[in-house]
User: What shape does this take?
Amino acid sequence: MYSIDALRTAADGYRYLDEGGHVYLDHTGAGLPARAQLWAHAERITTGCYGNPHSVSPASAASGELVERARRRVLAHFDADPSEYAVVFTANATGACRLVGEAYPFAPGTRLVLTLDNHNSVNGLREYARSRGADTVYVPLRAPRLGVDAEAMDAVLATPPPGGGLLAYPAQSNFSGVRHSLEWVTRAKAAGWDVLLDAAAYVPTNHLDLSAVHPDFVAVSWYKVFGYPTGVGCLLARRDALARLRRPWFSGGTIHVASAQGQWHHMADGEAAFEDGTVNYLSIPDIEFGLDWVRAIGTDAIHRHVTALTAELLTGLAALRHTGGGPLARFYGPPDTEDRGGTVALNLLDPAGTVIDERIVARDSAARRISLRTGCFCNPGTGEAAFAIDRHTLGGAVRTATGTIDDYLGRLGLPSGGAVRVSLGLSSSRTDVEAFLDFVATGYRDHTPDPGGLSPRLVC
Assistant: This one.
């Protein structure tokens, strides 16, 4: 296996980036596949015959065997005991969260606790909780590092939920890159909470050891780890927690038997009760190759690589100044790599210190073949904390049915609709960091860019 630096130029690695002149800085949005992964997929599906695994035919058996191999490989990757954890394949981490939300026993007297730093796929759990009479409580963040308020979290963890409850939080923020403590899992469970850990942004560059921490539910998207396949994620669930979930419906593949005229059904056991219809049997086996690819490189090596590049990015951004001495960039979260991953959210500033509309940065970076992300990254809570928007201000700026996002931002008094997110990963290189810093310095130093031609914001 190559070193990480050599993978960037290897024919079976990520050479296509430099061949195409790409600077890819959106690893939190999606990882990139090595060519070897794509070749392995093509080889497998062009040399074998695979059918719907809900049968005993040779083609079905071949698919079923590969899906179960992938299931076992996922458990091994997370050091998860197969007698304790089950792997439910989903379309993505969002699908994993939805499975928990729709089937969790929320009821009056139970409680859902969310950190203010959460992806909307986790925030959405509150709608399930609300519809069944459960209370939802948010634990605030502390600026400027954007970590969770330790005292508020301590108060939650010290208090057993009166009727039962669920704590849901990300191991790593998809907005700021802040890594949150995994010790909360152990403390919460000792206090009687169930725990949903959103690991989608964490596991691409960190090892999650489920023999050391034991969340009840873990949500993962595999394309964020190694780029391919898309459309495949999983819910890792403790078997006893999975058994407590009650799905509000059933479908093909999730039952042992059902009667139309008798209007009854009996759910399947374990994972099968949660894998609706036919699983993505042509893509799920690619997880095994992807995990073998990561193992050969080493998760620790990937972590060190991304941490070093993140340190260079943060140092470079802090050093960028206009001629008058004002900064070119304002970034959010820790100013160093302590308690943060390879995700950096920032805004660029003009010579007067005014935030440059993030749509301008998106437009200009695209012209330089730089792929990054702009907006609020489906994480409104961290954005509200980063931009110091309090509940009183939010209460006076509730978006009307006919209002646009720009109308909403105007009510909040914000000059921009969000931030610029630069995120690094396995295939990133020092030249990518240098290219972005050069883009900022040459494009915005002592310059107020023309905002002409920007489209209205459609989503947040």
The chain has a mean pLDDT of 92. The two ends are 41 Å apart (CA to CA). The domain at 4-30+298-444 is CATH 3.90.1150.10 (Aspartate Aminotransferase, domain 1).
